[in-house]
Design a protein that fits this description.
The N terminus is likely disordered. The two termini are 59 Å apart. α6 runs antiparallel to α7 and α9 packs antiparallel against α10. This protein has 296 residues and is α/β, with parallel strands linked by helices.
Length: 296
């Protein structure tokens, strides 16, 4: 006989006569395998399901088995906690799955799915990590995608990472967990965007050359120091936020360096020619940023 009993902090479970607690969705007495989570919750499941969805269990069941009564199958104790094991079994059984709300869950579930050679759950996880709320953590997404060889997801994550300063201390723990080649690809993407804008701003049609030049109208000697200071500010901003949105949407109109640059005029009191075309310069800088590489 079986009776139901609620367990604090868990789903409703079935309690067997010998005191073992079974998850309510995996308590059928017809199932011929019992899996035990490390927190002692038990799961009854058909061996056929495990054989057809898991290479690890298929190999296990191909070995000689101890003969046991069909109504008292041996318990196979696993390393996963009940939540991870529940999520995994729901996936392979075609039942409604648990939502993934954090990358701690994703990592635990991916590790278990890979360990037990379950391609079905891996493919489901691959789809789920591209949905909210997991999309707002590009470095965690990049770590999972590069580890699993998911190229499109890795490219998407690398593009999303452009809104981050990956050199900030708070991102170092996750970067240390990513494969060295993948980390280098990400660092190179961020660096190339910074250096790319630096190169472009030192080329035509932008002001280049020596620090001293002549006013295009009166030929009075002028100094492009306001433009140099603005260029430096743009490059430094691209270093901490390579996406470039803070440059074109805010910085080039509100930074003190930008205001000084657009207000710069020829020092000749009889000329006072405006030295820089603000509208055209903003357009060109935006085009430069848009042309930079966006993904690894």
């Amino acid at each position: 006989m079986m009776e139901t009993e609620p367990i604090l902090g868990s789903a409703l479970v079935m309690v067997s006569v010998d005191g073992g607690t079974f998850h309510k969705s995996f308590s059928s007495p017809d199932a011929d395998v019992i899996l035990g989570a490390k927190d002692h919750t038990l799961f009854r499941i058909h061996s056929w399901t495990l054989r057809t969805t898991s290479g690890w269990f298929r190999s296990l069941f191909s070995m000689p088995q101890q003969s046991l009564p069909s109504n008292h199958p041996e318990t196979i104790n696993l390393d996963e906690d009940s939540h991870t094991l529940e999520s995994l079994l729901l996936m392979i059984c075609g039942l409604p799955i648990n939502p993934l709300t954090s990358y701690d869950e994703v990592d635990a579930l991916l590790f278990a799915a890979e360990k037990y050679e379950m391609p079905g759950p891996v493919s489901l996880i691959r789809a789920l990590i591209m949905t909210p709320p997991l999309l707002d953590q590009p470095l965690r997404l990049y770590a999972a995608a590069t580890r699993c060889g998911w190229e499109q997801e890795a490219k998407h994550a690398s593009e999303q990472s452009l809104a981050l300063n990956i050199y900030a201390p708070e991102h170092q723990p996750i970067l240390r967990k990513i494969h060295a080649d993948a980390v280098l690809d990400l660092i190179n993407l961020h660096r190339e965007r910074r250096e790319g804008i630096r190169r472009r701003l030192n080329e035509q049609p932008f002001v280049t050359g020596s620090t001293l030049a002549s006013c295009p109208r009166c030929r009075w000697r002028i100094d492009h120091h306001t433009w140099r200071e603005l260029k430096y500010k743009v490059v430094m901003e691209m270093d901490v936020r390579p996406l470039g949105d803070t440059v074109v949407d805010v910085g080039l109109t509100e930074w003190p360096e930008a205001i000084a640059c657009w207000d710069a005029k020829c020092p000749n009191p009889e000329c006072t020619c405006v030295l820089y075309d603000k509208v055209e310069t903003l357009r060109l800088i935006r085009e430069c940023i848009d042309s930079l590489p966006k993904t690894t």
